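hiii so um. not sure if this is the right channel but i have a protein structure encoded as tokens and i wanna go backwards to a sequence. like what aa goes where. can anyone help
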């Protein structure tokens, strides 16, 4: 029996004893995150690790690994199998400090939470939770397919006490919701495993907050969790298999209230954990939170919300009617499925310009370049188009095109990016048509999502990711987190959210349009 160590991680330093299986499986068992967009099937080539010691205890490199021309001592975690009985020391290449946007909107609402302090005790409605410990806190969580963002809020003042972000640890099981759904359907305890992985991820972030701010987790008495339909339901341990088969609808769309102790969440055990309702299909509590925070439901003029992430959501409406549609962006703009693509970690190229055939760029944290994140990819496409290096038919004339000696973009990468943007842009145009309005008549276009706050709007418009109406675009940062916070600190907002979820019309353009495939193809080019 071998022992596998992951010295970069506190929980991986003591190692884990294994008699068989792969490095990736050992990492999952320990809770060490190794990015595997394909879920460990050897297709994506992203789970690269370096074997620091003990290579003789592993199988020989597979044909898949040999085709990738990996560096010295590098293996794919999903292909490297334990065959010996000695120690194996593993260095995970994809580790980086994430720089994920929290939210930028300030709350202008009356603070009226469900939690209060009365006569020396803490109450949730009329339920006794705890003795008065001096403060009462709440926690807003945005569970994205790729990212995880937590914000602790003072429930009496509304002050944001701490905001921390990290990678969603479920990334080891695939880069999109379909991969996660498939895992729960193929594996006997798959749902339980993914549920526990995300709970552990939240608890680890809470431990970091406690380390920075003192022991405040035990004073968190309510939690609001938003995410798309798959992410919300997996968080609460609910079956998501129906989201993977026609008609792709969640079994449970209702709001959820559970005790923290039932979820093993590291806050006050009696805390209420609330999941806002889902709209339908893959349009979940995250897009509902976007609607809540932008307040388009109260406006006379028609506005649009575009939330770009691993899933893309588009909303259009006003006080009279609201429509929404969702599509799979495949994570391409979050670094997935792109050769040099990477999440928003330090060292990720965040913007690009080409001047006189010279490439200039900036990285997150001004660190040495390690890859290209979403905002950088949008810039790169726009600059390639403007400089005639890529045609309007998306053909790359210099293939591959390099930004640095070893970071660049290939024709295959271009295909992934234009496919991802085509569905999102088509949803925008079709929702405008279904609503019976025009782009000129739309008042505001709210841009939400993990990287929406940093993208160059002119480049995003040039490549067709956003409509040609830059003067109407309002960047709101992480609207889902901001909406979750409002639902946390305001009873009124929570009631509004539950009412909105019932009246939003979820449309499925792929079922409604007989020529949908051809319509998508038309949006792939520039």
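sure thing!! here u go:
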């Amino acid at each position: 029996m071998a022992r596998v160590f992951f010295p970069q991680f506190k929980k991986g330093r003591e190692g884990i004893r294994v008699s068989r299986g792969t490095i990736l499986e050992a990492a999952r068992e320990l809770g060490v995150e190794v990015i595997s967009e394909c879920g460990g099937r050897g297709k994506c080539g992203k789970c690269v690790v370096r074997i620091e010691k003990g290579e003789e205890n592993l199988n020989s490199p597979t044909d898949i690994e040999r085709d990738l021309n990996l560096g010295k001592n590098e293996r794919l975690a999903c292909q490297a199998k334990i065959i010996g009985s000695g120690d194996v020391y593993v260095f995970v290449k994809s580790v980086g400090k994430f720089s994920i946007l929290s939210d930028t909107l300030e709350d202008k609402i009356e603070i009226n939470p469900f939690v209060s302090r009365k006569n020396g005790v803490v109450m949730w409605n009329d339920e006794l939770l705890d003795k008065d410990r001096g403060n009462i806190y709440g926690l807003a969580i945005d569970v994205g397919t790729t990212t995880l963002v937590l914000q602790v809020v003072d429930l009496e003042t509304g002050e944001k006490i701490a905001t921390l972000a990290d990678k969603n640890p479920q990334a080891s099981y695939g880069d999109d919701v379909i991969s996660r759904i498939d895992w729960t359907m193929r594996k006997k305890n798959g749902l339980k495993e993914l549920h526990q992985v995300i709970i552990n991820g939240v608890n680890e972030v809470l431990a970091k907050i406690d380390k920075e701010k003192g022991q405040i987790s035990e004073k968190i008495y309510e939690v609001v969790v938003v995410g798309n339909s798959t992410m919300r339901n997996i968080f609460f341990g609910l079956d998501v298999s129906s989201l993977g088969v026609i008609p792709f609808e969640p079994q449970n769309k209702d709001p959820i209230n559970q005790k923290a102790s039932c979820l093993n969440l590291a806050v006050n055990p009696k805390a209420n954990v609330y999941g806002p309702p889902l709209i339908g299909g893959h349009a979940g509590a995250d897009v509902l939170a976007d609607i809540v925070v932008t307040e388009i439901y109260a406006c006379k003029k028609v506005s649009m919300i575009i939330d770009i992430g691993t899933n893309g959501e588009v909303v259009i409406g006003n006080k009279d009617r609201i429509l929404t549609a969702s599509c799979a962006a495949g994570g391409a703009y979050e670094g997935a499925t792109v050769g040099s693509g990477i999440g928003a970690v330090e060292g990720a190229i965040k913007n690009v310009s080409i001047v006189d055939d010279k490439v200039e760029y900036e990285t997150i944290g001004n660190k040495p370049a390690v890859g290209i994140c979403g905002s950088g990819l949008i810039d790169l496409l726009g600059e390639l188009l403007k400089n005639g290096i890529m045609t309007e038919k998306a053909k790359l004339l210099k293939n591959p095109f390099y930004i640095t000696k070893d970071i660049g973009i290939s024709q295959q990468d271009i295909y992934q990016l234009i496919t991802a943007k085509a569905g999102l842009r088509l949803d925008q145009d079709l929702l405008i048509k279904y609503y019976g309005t025009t782009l000129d008549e739309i008042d505001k276009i709210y841009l939400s999502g993990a990287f929406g706050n940093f993208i160059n709007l002119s480049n995003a418009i040039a490549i067709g990711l956003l409509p040609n109406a830059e003067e109407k675009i309002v960047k709101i940062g992480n609207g889902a987190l901001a909406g979750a916070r409002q639902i946390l600190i305001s009873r009124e907002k929570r009631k509004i959210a539950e009412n909105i979820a019932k009246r939003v019309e979820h449309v499925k353009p792929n079922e409604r349009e007989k020529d949908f495939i051809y319509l998508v193809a038309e949006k792939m080019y520039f």
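oh and The CA atoms of residues 232 and 466 lie 27 Å apart.
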